[in-house]
Design brief:
211 residues, mainly alpha, 11 helices, globular
Length: 211
């Protein structure tokens, strides 16, 4: 199992890298690269390094266009975790409110335009708020994260590597196909106490990529 400090670094790095690649994010890439380089060898470091190499060899314009094409225009590449479990239903509103309360207990306040189920926000909470609870929260949404990983893989997106790094922090192997991920939703991932019920919602998630 990866050490706590290293897990926090992976969460913080993934939080930055999964955001829209504007100038602020690009300015933080050297710091992220240094932190990832200092990680011990393993699946998370390897995956993040692979994505950082992609960043280094891609123009800002191409990065931005790919991000929009991937996360704004593909429903199945959704970075909003409660969309995977609640879709556009009233349940989702309650789930978002519960998440905000969860963050406040660790004194983490969101920006005005941030939704609490946005995967980079969840990862930031794990990195700088409450690592144990943040990892537990990721585990609660493991099925949705794995389906996101599979959707990115099927789309041929380099962002697959970043989500793979997140999955490497969680117990048990990642599902290799969508059917296995859906079974994970019904039964719950390894060491999880409550299984998720994943429903095939089609409406696009509320709130696009933050820019």
């Amino acid at each position: 199992m990866i050490a706590e400090h290293h897990a926090a670094v992976v969460c913080q790095a993934a939080s930055v890298l999964l955001r829209y690649p504007d100038e602020d994010v690009r300015d933080r890439v050297p710091l992220v690269t240094g932190a990832v380089t200092a990680l011990p060898s393993g699946a998370a470091r390897s995956a993040l390094t692979r994505f950082l190499e992609h960043l280094a060899g891609t123009s800002p314009r191409d990065l931005a266009e790919h991000y929009v094409a991937t996360f704004d225009r593909r429903r199945r590449c959704c970075l909003y975790l409660t969309w995977w479990t609640d879709g556009e239903t009233r349940r989702r509103g309650q789930a978002l409110a519960t998440l905000k309360d969860r963050y406040r207990r660790s004194c983490l306040e969101l920006g005005g335009n941030e939704l609490p189920d946005y995967l980079p926000v969840v990862l930031e909470y794990a990195a700088i708020g409450d690592l144990a609870d943040g990892l537990a929260l990721l585990q609660e949404h493991r099925a949705g994260i794995e389906l996101l990983r599979l959707a990115l893989r099927d789309a041929g997106s380099p962002y697959t590597a970043v989500v793979e790094a997140v999955c490497a922090l969680l117990p048990g192997p990642s599902p290799q196909d969508r059917a296995a991920a859906q079974r994970l939703a019904r039964s719950g991932p390894p060491q999880e106490t409550v299984g998720l019920e994943l429903e095939p919602y089609d409406p696009a998630p509320s709130g696009g990529a933050r820019r």
